[in-house]
Structure formats: C-alpha cells, structure tokens
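Hi support team,

I submitted a single chain yesterday and got back a structure, but I'm not sure I'm reading the token output correctly. Could someone confirm the output below corresponds to the sequence I sent? I've pasted both exactly as they appear in my results page.

Thanks,
R.
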Amino acid sequence: MSVLGFGSLLSPRSARSTFPSAKNFRLAKVEGWRRVFSHPAPVFYQCGAVKPGSVECSSLSCEPWEEVQPHANGTWNHDAHCHDGMQERRREDQHNDAHCQECVEGKKGAPGLLVLLFEIDSVDAAAYVEREHELRFVAVQAKEIPGGGVKYDPHAIRKKCGSAVEIAGNPIWDLGDVPCNNGRCALYKDRMEARDHAPASAEVKTTHTWAVLCARFSDEEYKTQRCKDEAEFHERYVQYGVTKIWKDVDDPILPCRPYLRHCVLAAQFLGKEIEDNFLDCTFLCDRKTTLREYLERNPDIMSQLPPEGLRERYSG
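Hi R., thanks for writing in. Yes, this is the structure output for that exact sequence:
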C-alpha cells in the first residue's frame, strides 16, 4: 500500500516506528490540497503532549485547497468548484471528489503539497488505520519528484547529545550522526549545512502513483464509520473533554507545540524546498494564517524541547 506523509510522517524514522515494513521513501507532489490544523488527536492526550482543556491541541489533516471557507454550520459554499464531502452539505449539492482528479487539480492558486511517499506491507495496515484513526482515507495521485529518493537507516544507534536525543545513522543521507534537533547545537547546524549542500541525485523519469492521503472527516462520519459505539468515542475523545473533533474556522484551536516542532524539523531534514512548502501550504484553522506567519509570531515553539519522555518521539 502506498502512503503519503504530510505531517509527522514526513519523518522516515517516525514512519518506521509505527510501520516496520515502511520502505522506498521518496518525495512527491500532490496537487489541489493543503494542510490544516483543525482537529485534536487523541494520541496527544494519551502521551501527555497536551493537557486536557488546552487549545494548543491540534494535529494536521489535508483538505482540498478552496478559495472559499467553510461556514460556521459546517457546510461549504464552493461556487464553481466542488468539495469532496469532508464537511456535511445539502444532499442535492453533494459530489464525491475522492476519484475526481480534475476537480482537485483545478483549484486556482494552489501550489500543491510536497509530501513523503512510501510503501507499507499489508501486515502494517491495521497500525496505519489506528495511527490515523480520526481521518478520512482518500486515494489521490502523487507525482514523484525525479531524484527524490530518501535514504533511511533502520538500525540507528541512539545516544545522548546534551539534553536531547541524537540518532547515529542519518535518516536522509548517510552523513553520520543525526543531530539533536536543537538550533543552538553545533551538530544541528552542521547537519543543516550538509543538507543544503548535499549532491543532487541522478534524475529519473517522472511517474504518478496512486496513494492514500489522510483528509478531513466530519464528526458524524467519524462516529459512524470508525467508532463501533459511543463508548469508543468517549474513550478516544470525551474523557479528555473533547466533544467536537472537527473545528470551524472561528473555533479556538491551535497546533500542539511538540507535534508542530516535530513536523517542521522533519520537513527541514528533507530539504529547503520541502520546508518552505510546509511553512507556506499549512494553515491554522482559520484557513488564512500560514504556519510561517504563526511561527514568526511564536518563535519559542522551535526552541522549546518536548517533555523528557517525548523527546525522541517528537524530534523530527
């Protein structure tokens, strides 16, 4: 099964932590979509990355890049363009775009998402569903980037570097130690310089691959299609004070800080172009504020290390 990583799965190490069979990592582009921080993820509460009641609890999902915004009642005013049902609409206005490539590629002004494309074996399919439990699975075409192969060392040796975790065995290039993901660390700066001056890979023929993208759901669909009963919904969300998963543009929700930092670091390690795409094609829930703008106003997010027990998990 081909999978697209656009957030934490931009990190091959993160992917392999859940899917040991993950292989053939390479860069790709998906047209007509954007990333949005608009829903809390249960794993943040389970691992202690977020305290119940905090508005800094959002994970990422993807949605079609629309010039118009979702109404407060959860419906979409899309005029000439259609939407793939990620929010409830009037029955007569419904259109399933999951297989309508013309629709998603026709979004004006959409630069497309740069993502990490890889494969997992069927044995890891259940783990994939569990990791992305609250999300809709959509089949999209990904355009592989020539020379976009990504190396990964599954036998990395872990050791300490100052106050953070360092991995021996670079997951992107074989350049030695992966630094501690701390901008003040010399190893980190050396890693970034090596990344920016890494030799270009030999170009290969551009190909398109059908792959799974995790997209926005609605609360009603999630409860009926993923949760076997109300008890499961309560276990995953309500016990943490969350009764509404998918937020509207004016709802108070912000990115989970350790998760956001982790995703940015993962994008940085894949190269400047991927980093810029992540910062400029990722939005807060208002669909107006880019991640770059948000980080410029909150620079402490990238310098703030995750809690001790989460540093390896959320370090790019």
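A quick pointer for reading it: The first strand starts at residue 2 and ends at 5. Let us know if anything else looks off.

Best,
Support desk
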